[in-house]
Write a structure and sequence with these properties.
Blueprint (H helix, E strand, L loop, with lengths): L2 E3 L4 E5 L13 E4 L4 E11 L2 E6 L5 H5 L6 E2 L15 H4 L3 E4 L4 E10 L4 E7 L2 E6 L5 E5 L4 E4 L9
Parallel strand pairs: 7-12
Antiparallel strand pairs: 1-2, 2-5, 3-4, 3-6, 4-5, 7-8, 8-9, 9-10, 11-12
Length: 158
């Protein structure tokens, strides 16, 4: 949520999804750090953002209380992915270990580079950048929350 829009409780929301055309189909959105369900009264697009009207959010003050909060949908409502594809939020927090068994830490962020994603891992070696390519990522088990990586020459500072 970026900020209130107008005086009738609409919210200006930054669009982070690759599928903004699907937003109007969502009747419930989850907002905040401990996602709270809100019923959607209406969604429209304006100058590169979504303007969302929530049931019960009827004035600028009510909208102001939601400023800066994340907006989510249930995973069941997300666009189905191909085999071997993952949403970024699914990878964040996964433990990363090398094929030799060394723990590199946990995925803290995912950077989109255009060519391939890069996993930002925080752990004993500090920040490590792991390219999300088959030659490096050997295994990703989301249920076990574990990723096994093959360290190519030059990937880690010695």
């Amino acid at each position: 949520m970026l900020r209130p829009h107008g005086v009738r409780g609409e919210l200006r929301v930054e669009i982070l999804t690759d599928y903004p055309e699907r937003l109007p189909s969502h009747r419930t959105l989850y907002i905040g750090p401990e996602p709270t369900p809100y019923q959607v009264e209406g969604i429209r697009f304006h100058r590169g953002a979504a303007l969302i009207k929530l049931v019960g959010c009827d004035d600028r003050n009510a909208a102001e209380e939601l400023r800066g909060q994340w907006v989510q949908i249930p995973i069941e409502a997300a666009v189905p992915l191909e085999e071997g594809e993952y949403y970024h939020f699914q990878v964040v927090g996964v433990e990363v270990v090398t094929t030799e068994g060394e723990s590199l830490g946990r995925v803290a962020d995912v950077i989109e580079t255009g060519a391939n994603d890069v996993y930002v891992v925080h752990g004993p070696r500090g920040e490590v950048l792991i390219p999300a390519i088959e030659e490096v990522v050997r295994e990703l088990d989301l249920e076990a929350r574990r990723m096994v990586v093959e360290i190519l020459p030059g990937l880690l500072e010695e």
